Amino acid sequence: MPRNSSPDPEPISPALLRDRRIGSEDRGTVLVVGGARTVPGAPALSGTAALRAGAGTLQLAVSERHASTLGVSVPESSVFGLPETGSGAIGGDAVDRLADVLPGAGTVVVGPGLTGAAETEDLLRRLVPAVAPDAHVVLDAFALGALSRAPELAEPLAGRLVLTPNRVEAAFLDGCEEKDVDDLETAVRIAGRYRGVVLLMGVVAEPGGRTWRDGSGHVGLATSGSGDVLAGLTGGFLARGAAADQAACWATHVHAVAGQRLLPRTGSTGLLARELVAEIPRVIAELER
Q: What positions does the entry give for AMP binding (predicted)?
């Protein structure tokens, strides 16, 4: 596909989001699977963002060594300890620990804090068949790399899959070099290839070719952990009954505006991902007026 061959994306604005309001009656369950040995905080960022977006119940599935600590630091969540591989990653055996949990999770966010390409692919191969047949699935971080290695795993998730790559992960999914990533065109190709909604650097693309773009972001959102917040936000909106593209549009705008609100206090280089989480409910409240 030639560069810039897609129609201009529809701007994501407060007016657009108010026209596509997300209901408040559904407050479903979000399960976040991540938190390997060296990255225990990522699922906490995703999970608290999901709660701030309106998820009713949060479950964190993380490395067993971190489960108790995360249970204390995120007291609103139930926590499930997962076995580690020798390298500290979380592999396919972890799915056995979630056999009683997965059927009840309406939204599953996989990837925040996972490590190990091969281990994550093994985890994803066993996890995908185990999720509820009507559950939405959000893939982020190493789970996206695993999907690029095994694209057939997206097939049973068609219509209920959301991908939240950065440009490095988008290059893997699109089979190109990072320098060749064009946010709009790459997002469109990935959405078509994996039959899921893609949220890439403010661009939202759905498999049918429709696209949206939010221009509210800034360089401060490139900070470590910001993507975990975005994935959790998306999961939280899905738990409220949003369609996949609707959740992605809301998440990218709320994430970006939350970052804008922090600029007077943090500047563009001092923003911390955990500070975004505290801004989320205020941004949502303004949009829902």
A: 227
Residue 52 belongs to some domain of the structure: yes
CA–CA separation, 122 and 203 (whole Å): 29
> Binding site membership for AMP: which residues?
227
Bridge partners for 63 per DSSP: 82
Q: Are 107 and 238 in contact (CB under 8 A)?
A: yes
- 1 located within any domain: no
Residue 165's alpha-carbon distances to 47, 176, 235, 278, in angstroms, are 18, 14, 14, 23
Q: What averages of pLDDT result for each successive group of 10 residues across the chain (289 residues)?
A: 69 96 90 97 97 97 96 96 96 95 97 96 97 97 96 96 97 96 96 97 96 83 90 98 98 94 84 92 93
Q: Known binding site for (6S)-NADPHX: residues?
A: 42, 113, 228
CATH of the domain at 222: 3.40.1190.20
* Overall number of domains in the chain: 1
Q: Considering the entire predicted model, what is its pTM?
A: 0.95
Residue list, annotated binding site: 42, 113, 227-228
